[in-house]
């Protein structure tokens, strides 16, 4: 099969590793890490690439190596071929390999500061520097949020941002297949100079590998058929669903 892939450049190492092992032909396009800080602009760019890929008639599917990413993927519309996206809130799920691993490590503190080799080597920041609240677009008033998302979804999003206890440590996600010890030493040095504890957890490329190998179990991926749009589900299980018809601006 022939796929078009759109991915954040923080996943360059993991994506390239999996592309080299995929049985399919894949044309990747990487967006810069900082683009998710402007979700509307990022969504417009992603849709433009999706549309151009669809117009060629070459691809069997367009793959997205993103999560909701501050709602930047909400409203993306599949054109002449399916759109495949992991059921993930952001790229930490892709680094960890499952929604369950995300809940285990970040469920009590979704705004936990973290880093990986791929994240640190892209852009101007070594560790995550933007709050989940900003990425989810939660800087509006409660009334504005309810109008945008509905009361039940807002309640979930606000609850997701609560933490049982504060933590100023930095979680480093070590992905065995793409780990670089020299890069890790630089990351560790900067974190220690900032006086922050460093805690390591093990990453997993399972989701990325399945995405690029064409294995899309419903529990882990949304396959939006042509003419359907990606819609958010603010929970920890479904995360996204396909709605018929193109999104309205």
Considering the chains and any ligands shown, give keywords for the structure.
249 residues; alpha/beta; 5-stranded mixed β-sheet; 3-stranded parallel β-sheet; 10 helices; globular
Which structural class is indicated by helix and strand composition?
alpha/beta
Oligomer classification = single chain
How helical, in percent, are the residues?
25-40%
Question: Main β-sheet, in a few words?
Answer: 5 strands, mixed
Tell me the count of domains: 1
Provide a short characterization of the protein structure.
The chain is an alpha/beta fold.
Can you walk through the features of this model?
The chain is an alpha/beta fold. The chain is 36% helix and 20% strand. The chain has helices spanning 12-21, 39-56, 91-96, 99-106, 117-120, 132-135, 142-149, 151-160, 181-193, 206-213; strands spanning 2-8, 25-31, 61-65, 83-86, 114-115, 170-174, 198-202, 221-224, 228-232, 240-244. The strands form 3 sheets. The protein has a 5-stranded mixed β-sheet with strand order 2-1-3-4-8, sandwiched between helices. The protein has a 3-stranded parallel β-sheet with strand order 5-6-7. The protein has a two-stranded antiparallel ribbon with strand order 9-10. Strand 1, helix 1 (12-21) and strand 2 form a beta-alpha-beta unit. Helix 1 packs across helix 10 and helix 7 packs across helix 8 (151-160). The radius of gyration is 18 Å and the shape is globular.
